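Problem 12. The chain below contains 230 residues. Write out its predicted structure in token notation.
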Amino acid sequence: MDEIIDCPSPNHDARALPVSILVLHYTGMVDAASAIDWLTRPESKVSSHYVVTEDGQVLRLVDEGRRAWHAGRSHWRGITDVNSASIGIEIVNPGHEYGYRPFPAEQMAALLPLVADIVGRHGIQRPNVVGHSDIAPTRKLDPGELFDWELLARHRLALARPREGLADPHWTPGGFLLALERFGYDVSDGPAAVRAFQRRFRPELIDGIADGETRAILLSLLLDRERGRE
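Solution.
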């Protein structure tokens, strides 16, 4: 991994939980300079542990031992103080508001060893490598449908999208939400939760409708969990 540049943010406090989650974000601002400036301003009250620029530079804003303020109101697998339990990485991208675009190869090449190092040191399990939209489906879209989750999955750094042997369990809409909650999502807003799941595991169609393919993907993920294959 290339050298990490320290760019301290004052926006952090003490952790209340051990690290078990890695949250990936996009910056959602016009450029890297604007994002870094905002993440390091006291008045913004936001931060992350790392920023990865589009040309592959990695900046450290908050020491991993401290609680960065990146997740906001969020929930994942029963944890509601996600900031306390997580490392946050901001990936420079203008996001849906300012011209969302694919993440450059140089950026992903820098992200991979950073993620591998973090999950290895903290023992973070693949299901707990998540996007901001997974932990806050009513509020967030990032890192979004163009993020290359499959690249991380090929390196066993995130869950892969199930593609083989899919079978539709024909759950009712309510049954699907129960299954989605069991997997880890906050389902208080059903359509938002379905869209977040689709954005992560079936990004070519994000409509908030739990169709047969969406149901089959979730069933496969749950079966892998039960069999200890996550």
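Discussion. The chain has a mean pLDDT of 97. Students who got a different answer should revisit the alignment rule from Section 12.3.
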